[in-house]
Amino acid sequence: MDISAYGATGNGVQYSDGVIASGTTSFSSKSATFTPKDAGKYLSCYGCGLGGFSLVTKIAAFVDNHHFTLAVNAGATATAAVFSYGTDDWAAIQAAIDSLGSTGGHVLWPSGRYFSTRTVFLNGLTSVGTRIKHIAGPGAILDFEPGSYPLFNGTGADRALIADWSETTSPRARPISAELSVSSLSLMAANGSSDTSDLTPGQYLNIVETDPKVMDVVCFDWAQVASVSGATVTLTTPIRDSCFLNNHSPASLNFFALFGNANAKIVEDCGIDGLTVVSNWWDGNMTHLTPGIDTHHVRNTIIQNTTVSMQAGQPYYSYRSEGTKLRNVKVKNVSPVEIHYSEIGASVDYTVDGFNCVIESVAPAPGVSCGLATDFGTGFFQFNNINLGASSSSQLQCIYGGHDGIVTNYVAGYMRPNTPANNAAINYLGCYNITIDSPRLTGGAGTGNFGIQMVSLTDAGSLQKGIASKNNLVLKPFVGTYPTQTNMTSVSDLLVARPPR
Asked: Can you give the pTM of this predicted structure?
């Protein structure tokens, strides 16, 4: 399915010399060539909104080839602002995806810049759900400029592109009656058959252990129903070793039946190839970090040859997904002010092969970074060929129960000073069974930065029940000069083997 067949124009453009005075609507650019047809298009300008952040509005009227008026006043004066404008193609893009229906198919994004003010859903916005198989977008740019930050509600605008489930309501938590034993092929529902009677063979489950203090997952895995008998659910594969801590109250151990709605479809085996996602939008709120490409409750998604370039956000984001693969992907941090972390949360069997993060802002502030973080029980992951640019915060990070991972060929750029302190090129907190082979850590500045930290999280910290750092191994690291060398081996279970001098 070609999105242009549904009216997508791809007529967006971007420049970096926007000029406007605070409290006015007169906008100019020497490099752009405006036409009368531009009236009514959407414009996003970073630096033109309140506080010097983003302004998203419509072009009210054409003046001449280098001037037009906006529909609202600028919130700040800008003289060399990055701005983009174009037809809002969101409805056409979404209509093309929705047209595939439950039988699924392929989507082609012809070369062009597609301006979008809302989230594009690869699972469609219909109750039936879409079985999208592949997006091909070499030369295509999705320019996501929402203009506001509503809470994500299934039709909102706080992320650019998402592969999600197509349930109409979130699945409910179903308590598990006892600890999960390693290699067990079954679990027992605490509420009896009332929590199992709607399950069917082949249905997928999310099994989670949560910590009430951090209010999120600390252990997680997917499972599939083989059979059901009363309150007992037999699984197709056994519970994996070390996946569950079993150290919280019984109420913290639950399973979620996914796709219980007969009309809902799981997004799986989907490919995204060659697409570039950009967003110049940010309102200055540190909690409003816009995900670029998001895999949410999906299986076996392959994302390759993609680039995400943002002012503020999480370029690649995953939550409660299985088998996602990133191949030859890039992050461009173009902001002078914000932290960029690609976050892999509560996901399993995640693979990265080729991840390159670069900073292109003219004058990066102390907080600017490029990072890759795993958290909230992410496990059984493999990362290879990771190159993270110079940073002022932790670069390769794992927290809250990350486990059973292998990292190879990791290069960390120079770590600049920052506040607060205690940032690291490798920063693993409350994680276990992880091997990092042959990392190259450039070095750093600032009294609180260091090269490698692997420490436990205690009950007195951010968790109700602490998670020990154990069975972690760093092999053959090259470690440059860091100001705080005492934290290089700050926990006894960490084995560091330095190369010969």
From this structure: 0.91
